[in-house]
Amino acid sequence: MSYDYVVLGAGRQGVALAYDLALNCEADRVTLVDVHPEPLVRAEERLRALLPGHGCHFAAVACDVSQPESLRPHVAGVDVVLSAVPFRLNVALTDAAIAAGASFCDLGGNTAVVRRQLARHDRAAARGVSVVPDCGLAPGLGNILAAHAIATLDQPAHVHIRCGGLPERPVGPLGYKLLFNFEGLLNEYGGFGEYLRAGEPARVPALTEVEEIEFPPPLGRCEAAVTSGGVSTCTETFRGRVQTYDYKTVRYPGHYAIMRALFELGCFEARVALPDGRVLEPRALFRQLLETRLAFPDVRDLVVLRCIVQGVHQGRPLTRQYDLFDRHDEQTGFSAMERTTAFPTTLVAYMQARRLIAPGARPLEVALPLRQYLDELAAHDLRVTISES
């Protein structure tokens, strides 16, 4: 079999998606769509250099995806549309894909948006297509690992997911390298984590409950704190089945104390009115500063993901731990964040193309054939180790 995919966004994640679709997902054609012609040209050139002589046909379309009606001719008849554009666009893009008869998945990141996408279930089912939001790293792979453990333990009780994209060493004033879109980072650091505590929903403020966490070298001692979005819809899905479900983002020590101070000072507020009537825009300024001064192009990144699920199995207490550690790939040039966000998503899209996911709009944690997903993940050059105690 061969399949036709459309990738929305020709930035870092979009190119990584297109690469893995061509290499590992039986792609006959991958079309990249972006509002700007320049990244499309760079993306096509890079993909052809990475996959010389490959049978997949790459195409590029300049189109403003914020105007979904202009997108529909380009997605009609394709198997799956993958979104690597800002999450605020994903509801309208979901509608456009359904109308065109194409399945849809995305990198996600905002649970309110996901709930609106899931409300399209009946419409997607009637068109015979599937919609699966929040398919990246966290939200995404972390929740898949948790769902796998919950499904295979007799009495799952407590789920703890810890994940971080970091520079190989602490750099700059925050010990951090900006690895994805500023708005995505702001989404994580603002708002609340939506967790389960003692079996009940709990909203926990972001950047709180900082804990120490130890990883094998080269990471060593790090810290993790509450952030928003990483749990996605899992607290709703698993309420009544587990007592605890939480997620924290991993950073080098000291990072969160500085970030909390910046938030409390109002540095990320959209607008601030001065006594003399002038209005300042701190967020716009800090976006420019962070994107410029936290780029560190010569510093490689790494990703760590740990999911711990505790419960009872076959009459005895059991803790199952899933670990993923990934680094920048020197051969392809893809960063660890690009790899671990894009490749889990392409595997979801590949399952959608093969009709292994039922029509309708469903949360990631219930949509997938979990065992098969984990079995196939290694073919996408991502390896998860599982240990029990």
Give a quick set of tags describing it.
alpha/beta, 14 helices, 29% strand, 389 residues, seven-stranded mixed beta sheet, Rossmann fold, single chain, globular
Describe the model.
The structure is a single chain. Helix 1 packs across helix 12. This protein has 2 domains: 178 residues, NAD(P)-binding Rossmann-like Domain (Rossmann fold, 3-Layer(aba) Sandwich); 187 residues, Dihydrodipicolinate Reductase, domain 2 (2-Layer Sandwich). With 389 residues, it is an alpha/beta fold. The mean pLDDT is 95. The strands form 4 sheets. Strands 3-2-1-4-5-6-17 form a 7-stranded parallel sheet, with helices on both faces. Strands 10-11-12-7-15-16-18 form a 7-stranded mixed sheet. A two-stranded antiparallel ribbon has the order 8-9. The radius of gyration is 20 Å and the shape is globular. It has 14 helices and 18 strands.
End-to-end Cα distance, whole Å, is 42 Å
Looking across the biggest beta sheet, what order are the strands in?
3-2-1-4-5-6-17
What's the total number of strands? 18
**Average predicted local confidence, pLDDT:** 95
Please tell me how large the radius of gyration is.
Answer: 20 Å
Major beta sheet summary:
7 strands, parallel
CATH architecture grouping of the largest domain: 2-Layer Sandwich
Low-confidence parts lasting 5 or more residues at pLDDT below 50?
none
DSSP strand content: 25-35%
The helix count comes to 14
What would the CATH topology of the largest domain be?
Dihydrodipicolinate Reductase, domain 2
What's the number of structural domains?
2
Question: What is the top-level CATH class of the largest domain?
Answer: Alpha Beta
Category from helices, strands and their pairing: alpha/beta
Shape: globular
Helical fraction: 25-40%
Find the CATH superfamily of the largest domain.
Dihydrodipicolinate Reductase, domain 2
